[in-house]
C-alpha cells in the first residue's frame, strides 16, 4: 500500500485556482492602467516617470486591489454562503482566517512596494488607497456611502500614478478630470452591482451608460488640451469608441431587462472596460504607454473567460 507524500497535482491546481478566484485575478490587471494613466498625465507635465518607478507603482496598485477583493470575500462569507456558494470561502477551498491574513498582507505589500518605488509621497497615496479599501469592505459596502467609497478607490488609484517622479496633480487643472471621472464611473458601476444577485435598478444602468459616454470623450480632449499631435488624438478617440463598443451592448441588455443574468455580465464588462479608457488617457504620453495599458486589458480579458469578474 503506497504512502501519499504530499498533495496531488489536482489538489494543488484546485488550491491555486481557488486563490486566483479569491483575488479576482482578471480584475487585478485592471488596476495598473489607472496608475499608467495618472503617471502619463504628470509625465507630460514634466515629471520624471521611469519604467521601473511606474512599474513599481503599478505593482503596488495590483497588490492593493488583490487585497481588497480578498477582504471583500472575507467580510461577505456568510452572504456568499447563500447567494454565491461557489466562491472559495463558502465552498471550503479557502478558510476565512487564511483569507483575512492574505488580504491584510497584500495591502501591506502594496504600501511597501509603493514606498520603495516612488518614495514617501507614493506610500501615502497607496496607504490612503488601502484605507479606502478597508472602509469599503468592512463598513460602507451595501450602503449608498459604499458606492462613493468604491469610486474613490479608483480615483485614488489614478492619483497613486500621479505621484511618480514627485508629480503634482494640481499642475494642470484638466488632469483632475481623470481621477474624478474614474471615481464617478466606478461609483455608478458599484451602484449597479449593489444587488446584482437579484437584479438592479434601471436608473443605475443608465447612470453607468451616461458616465461611460463622458469617459469616452475625455481622453481625446486631454490630448488636444495637452497639445499632442493628431495621431495620438486619433488613437485616444478610437479607444474611446472601442470602450463604448465593449461595454455598450451588455449595458443596453441590462437596461432592457435588469435581471441578475444580465446585470452580472454588464458589471464585469464595465469593470474591464475601464482599462481601455485608461489606455486612451495614457496615450497623451505616447503609444508605448498605450500599449502597456492595453496589454493589461488583454490579459484581464483573457482571464475573465476562466474567472468571475463581479
TrEMBL record:
The membrane spanning regions, by residue number, are 99-119, 173-193, 205-226, 232-255, 276-304
Gene3D superfamilies listed in its UniProt record? UbiA prenyltransferase
The membrane topology of this protein is:
Multi-pass membrane protein
Q: Single GO cellular component annotation?
A: plasma membrane
Which keywords does the record carry?
Membrane, Transferase, Transmembrane, Transmembrane helix
Which Gene Ontology molecular-function terms are recorded?
transferase activity, transferring alkyl or aryl (other than methyl) groups
Subcellular location per the Swiss-Prot or TrEMBL entry: Cell membrane
- Give the domain of life: Archaea
Recorded hits in Pfam families, A to Z, give: UbiA (PF01040)
Know the name of this protein?
Transferase
Amino acid at each position: 500500500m503506497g504512502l501519499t507524500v504530499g498533495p496531488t497535482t489536482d489538489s494543488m491546481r484546485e488550491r491555486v485556482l481557488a486563490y486566483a478566484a479569491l483575488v479576482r485575478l482578471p480584475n487585478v490587471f485592471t488596476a495598473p492602467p489607472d496608475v499608467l494613466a495618472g503617471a502619463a498625465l504628470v509625465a507630460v507635465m514634466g515629471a520624471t516617470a521611469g519604467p521601473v518607478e511606474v512599474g513599481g507603482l503599478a505593482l503596488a496598485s495590483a497588490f492593493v486591489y488583490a487585497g481588497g477583493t480578498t477582504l471583500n470575500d472575507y467580510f461577505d462569507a456568510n452572504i456568499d454562503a447563500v447567494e454565491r456558494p461557489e466562491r472559495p470561502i463558502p465552498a471550503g477551498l479557502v478558510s476565512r482566517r487564511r483569507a483575512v491574513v492574505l488580504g491584510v498582507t497584500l495591502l501591506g505589500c502594496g504600501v511597501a512596494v509603493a514606498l520603495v518605488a516612488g518614495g514617501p509621497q507614493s506610500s501615502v497615496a497607496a496607504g490612503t488607497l488601502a484605507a479606502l479599501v478597508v472602509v469599503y469592505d468592512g463598513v460602507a459596502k451595501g450602503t449608498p456611502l459604499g458606492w462613493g467609497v468604491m469610486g474613490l478607490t479608483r480615483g485614488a488609484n489614478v492619483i497613486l500614478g500621479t505621484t511618480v517622479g514627485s508629480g503634482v496633480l494640481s499642475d494642470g487643472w484638466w488632469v483632475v478630470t481623470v481621477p474624478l471621472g474614474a471615481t464617478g464611473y466606478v461609483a455608478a458601476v458599484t451602484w449597479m452591482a449593489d444587488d446584482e444577485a437579484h437584479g438592479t435598478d434601471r436608473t443605475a444602468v443608465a447612470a453607468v451608460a451616461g458616465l461611460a459616454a463622458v469617459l469616452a470623450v475625455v481622453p481625446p480632449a486631454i490630448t488636444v488640451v495637452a497639445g499632442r499631435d493628431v495621431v495620438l488624438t486619433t488613437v485616444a478617440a478610437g479607444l474611446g469608441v472601442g470602450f463604448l463598443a465593449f461595454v455598450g451592448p451588455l449595458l443596453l441588455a441590462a437596461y432592457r431587462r435588469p435581471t441578475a443574468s444580465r446585470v452580472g455580465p454588464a458589471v464585469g464588462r464595465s469593470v474591464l472596460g475601464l482599462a481601455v479608457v485608461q489606455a486612451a488617457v495614457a496615450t497623451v504620453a505616447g503609444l508605448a504607454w498605450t500599449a502597456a495599458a492595453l496589454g493589461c486589458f488583454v490579459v484581464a480579458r483573457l482571464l475573465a473567460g476562466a474567472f468571475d469578474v463581479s
